[in-house]
Specification:
553 residues, two-stranded antiparallel ribbon, alpha+beta, 24% strand, 23% helix
Length: 553
């Protein structure tokens, strides 16, 4: 028996194969993987020429069901004329509307759309309803109905359950909702069913304007007046000056010359006053008329300008800029009228002349645009002297218009603005570079030679030391006291190494001397240890070799 995991895998594989084999393909495709394109009139197929399901109006089999014709399996045979679908030429499974029978060759009765026989209608044409398998005409203006008393849809322009009511003339496109008559309104119409004119309109099409009133839709006669008017007979007449409101029963405020007949707000105040009721006083900075300030009635803005030239703004409550010459400015914009004080420029004299402008007895720059009047300080150029001359200009002087160096260039530079290096300066620079390179190479060679001299001196010291060591060994062996001569001690050798290295050779020589001194100190300790050891020639040579190697590092 197979193990359980293997059985599970086998079950999954078989299930996948079954699913692939029975997978539903999209219409027009077939095969195990649905990758086969079916013939034109096929819905499903097993291969390129064999259909299992045909589209409506086509079938598989023999032409005209005649055995003398070959059997066709690609759904290329057409059903009869009145068949929607068929299983073969002589058997329709569904007929077109108005036909019935095995081959759909019989017509249903008049006004019947679908029937089983001439006396059994199951669905009627539009405008008729079915009652006991017979079709009867719907009532007038009923497009489709369930019975004589209930219309499902009405002809255009009608509504209600029996379609006997007309949509209102104000309905857009004269269409309305079948159950209530509600609709979207045309212009100038209003109401749930668009059966009324908007306020101020009258007439059948609401295309006339009521004269300053609410009026009758049919006659246009005023029934009530708008504010500012009063009813005289059947028309509305404007209020007399100084009155306002419904039927002009209210008087304008005391300081009002005129007020709105609709709401009583003052439109013209007596001089010096403003506001809705003309109770507020105009600013004393406003220009006067008959020695009384004049301002707008609605907000108090000065109408004729300011009473003095040092004020500006809508209400003449702003002071001209402190840099305006004579302290005067335009009352509307605040722009200085007569230019600026010394050292300032701009429309409002808010900008200061450049500090690079040359000093002047009158002013350093023009009020209009800030251009320096007397040129620039040395080292600057441009209309406002804001740009610096090139540092290579001789005496730091350049032309004001274009920055060209007026007195030429300092040595080594050329060009209008002295930005280019001269040819001779380039050669000199190249020569200097070559000299510097030679000096560096010479210093390197000299340093190397110095090192060779130092190393040679060190080697000479080492050989001298080896000779003295041998002499000392001989003298010690002949000296019964065994005492050492302090004058020939290791510090003396170090001093000789220092002298051999030389004073003032440079940092490299000093470093080499330091290394030699440290090496000699180490070697001296080794010599002292040697006195207590075997004095054989072999040990002496080994120690001497070690000293030589340490000193040579």
């Amino acid at each position: 028996m197979l193990p359980t995991p293997l059985l599970l895998i086998l079950f999954i594989v078989q299930g996948f194969r079954f699913q692939q084999a029975h997978k539903e393909c999209e219409p027009g495709h077939g095969g195990p993987s649905c990758n086969i394109s079916c013939p034109d009139n096929c819905i499903t197929c097993s291969d390129h020429a064999t259909c299992s399901t045909c589209k409506a109006g086509y079938y598989n089999g023999r032409q005209y069901d005649n055995i003398n014709y070959p059997e066709v399996l690609d759904c290329s045979l057409k059903c009869r004329q009145n068949c929607i679908s068929c299983s073969k030429f002589g058997n329709c499974t569904e007929c077109k509307r108005g036909y019935f029978g095995i081959i759909c060759d019989q017509k249903c009765s008049s006004n019947c759309a679908i029937c089983a026989s001439t006396d059994k209608c199951t669905e009627c044409v539009t405008g008729f309803y079915n009652r006991k398998y017979s079709c009867y005409h719907c009532i007038s203006n009923c497009l489709s109905c369930r019975d004589p008393f209930y219309c499902r849809t009405c002809n255009s322009g009608f509504y209600d359950y029996r379609c006997h009511r007309k949509c209102e003339i104000g309905c857009l496109s004269e269409e309305c909702y079948i159950r209530s008559g509600r609709c979207l309104c045309k212009d100038n119409f209003t109401g749930y069913r668009c059966d009324r004119c908007v306020t101020g309109r009258y007439g059948k099409l609401c295309n006339f304007t009521c004269p300053n009133c609410i009026c009758d839709r049919d006659t246009g006669q005023c029934t009530s007046c708008n504010n500012g008017y009063f009813l005289s007979n059947t028309t509305c007449v404007s209020c007399e000056k100084g009155t306002w409101g419904q039927d002009c029963k209210n008087n304008c405020s005391e300081k009002c010359v005129e007020c709105s007949p609709e709401n009583g707000i003052c439109t013209v105040c007596s001089d010096g006053k403003y506001g809705n009721d003309c109770s507020q006083s105009c600013s004393t900075n406003c220009m006067t008329r008959n020695n009384v300030p004049v301002c707008a009635a609605e907000n108090g803005a000065c109408l004729k300008g300011c009473s003095t030239l040092d004020k500006h703004g809508e209400f003449c409550n702003l002071t001209c800029g402190s840099n305006c010459k004579d302290g005067t400015c335009d009352w509307k914009s605040g722009a200085c009228l007569h230019g600026c004080t010394i050292n300032y420029f701009g429309e409002f004299c808010e900008n200061m002349c450049s500090i690079s402008c040359a000093p002047s007895s009158d002013r350093r720059c023009f009020s209009r645009n800030g251009t320096c009047t007397e040129g620039c300080f040395p080292g600057y150029y441009g209309p406002k002297c804001l740009q610096k001359c090139n540092d290579n200009c001789l005496n730091n002087v350049c032309g004001r218009e274009n920055g060209h160096c007026s007195h030429g260039c300092i040595q080594g530079f050329t060009g209008d603005t002295c930005t280019y290096i001269t040819h001779s300066a380039k050669q000199k620079d190249n020569t200097k570079s070559s000299t510097d390179t030679g000096a560096i190479i010479g210093a390197g060679i000299g340093g190397a030679a110095g090192m060779l001299v130092i190393v040679g001196g060190i080697l000479l010291i080492v050989f001298c030391l080896r000779g003295r060591v041998r002499n000392k060994e001989n003298s010690n062996s002949s000296d019964p006291t065994g005492e050492r001569n302090d004058d020939e001690s290791a510090p003396g050798y170090a001093e000789e190494a220092r002298v051999a290295a030389g004073n003032g050779v440079g940092n490299t020589a000093a470093e080499t001397y330091q290394n030699v001194q440290e090496s000699v100190t180490v070697n001296t300790n080794m010599y002292e240890q040697l006195q207590d050891r075997d004095k054989s020639e072999q040990q002496y040579e080994m120690v001497s070799d070690t000293i030589y190697q340490n000193t040579s590092r």
